[in-house]
Each structure stands twice: as C-alpha cells, then as structure tokens.
Amino acid sequence: HYLVLSAIGLVLMLRTSWLLSLVSLGALPLIGVFALLYGLLVQKISEQYQTALARASDVAQESISSMRTVRSFAMEGHERTRYDACVEDAYRLGARRARATGCFLGLVSAIAQYALVVVLWVGCLQVISGHIQFGELTAFLLLAIYVVSSLGGWP
Known about the structure:
90% of the residues lie in helices and 0% in strands. The chain is rod-shaped. It starts with a helix and ends with a helix. The chain has 155 residues and is mostly helical.
C-alpha cells in the first residue's frame, strides 16, 4: 500500500518537474550508504547483545539451580557479582545500539533537511528564471511531503 502511494507520488513529482525530482532524489544514495553501514553495525551489536543476555540468563539459571551449593559455600555475593557483570555488559551493548540508532536517525533527518533546502533553492531559481510557476513549485513540495510520509509508513 505504502509502496504504491510512493510510486504514484514519484510519478506525479516527475510530471511536475523532472529537474526538481532528480535534485530531491539525489540524497537517496547517501542515505542508502548510511543505512547499509547502520544495518551492519546494528546487526553486529544485536548479536553481541543477545549473547550477553543469554550469558546473564545462564548465570542466573546456574545459580538458582545450585542454590544449596552456593549457600553452603557462602558464595551468594560472588554469584550476584557475576550476574551483575553480565547484565551490565548487556546494558552497555543496548545503550551502544540506541546511540547508533539515534545517530543514524539524526543523520538521515539532517540529510533530508539539506535536500529540502537544495530543492527549494533550485526550485526558486527555476521560478525566477520562468521555467516553472510558483504553483508548480508548491505542488512539487506537497508531493514530496506526500512521498516521504508514504515511505515513512513503509515497513
């Protein structure tokens, strides 16, 4: 559904102004490169995160299943320290993944804002030179917002 809406919006953008369409789509390769790098980084961090959570679960299960032995040797503090270290490791990896996501989203938003500024600049130059009308520029910008919002809902 979202893909169809985006495709229709892109066709209408191309009909409105092919030059502005090319300028607005110019940011996609840069966003694609950052998305690829982000995906690789988050995949690596997520695997480490899942491993750390599994390790914490193993430590907890091991301690609980042998509670009599742990208590008989007065090792409750040691087991708690082991578990806390595993949970802390998982927390650090989760925070690292959250920072990566925040940086990626901020970077993509900044690129999109810069692309909008460039589209407005080129569009205003086109209006001043008489190649397009102000209404066409307005229609193009509204179509661009439509396409971006449609892509934003795409899984």
